């Protein structure tokens, strides 16, 4: 691996790691001012913008739902300006996980279960000027939902979801 490829790999790995505990300054050092996150479509409106601030908003959204949040990188591949990471995301569901519609209105809310999860993901990063300018991912959302007890939902959990959604829409 060349020094350029190694640097790109390190930027991609670090950009994933800061999601768990990085500061706004960390995000500014890793994400290009024009960076876009293709995965933000169901996230709060602040996450759908461009640049480090939008990525930091995504981190805050995830941190609000999951304690002990982290990623373990299993493999990394670098090809030109593209870095692909195969990773395992883990955490514990301690806060409501809310998804949003295209207008930024709460669409679904999953109340905290206290359960832990660990799921595989593949993250794709495109770099420009030594920073992340684009991100997208393939995630095991079904596996995560099963581990957290979201599916199959019990009648009690469905009621808790409705109450959580009502509360999220009031916020």
TrEMBL record:
<dbReference type="InterPro" id="IPR032710">
    <property type="entry name" value="NTF2-like_dom_sf"/>
</dbReference>
<dbReference type="Pfam" id="PF07366">
    <property type="entry name" value="SnoaL"/>
</dbReference>
<dbReference type="InterPro" id="IPR009959">
    <property type="entry name" value="Cyclase_SnoaL-like"/>
</dbReference>
<protein>
    <recommendedName>
        <fullName>Ester cyclase</fullName>
    </recommendedName>
</protein>
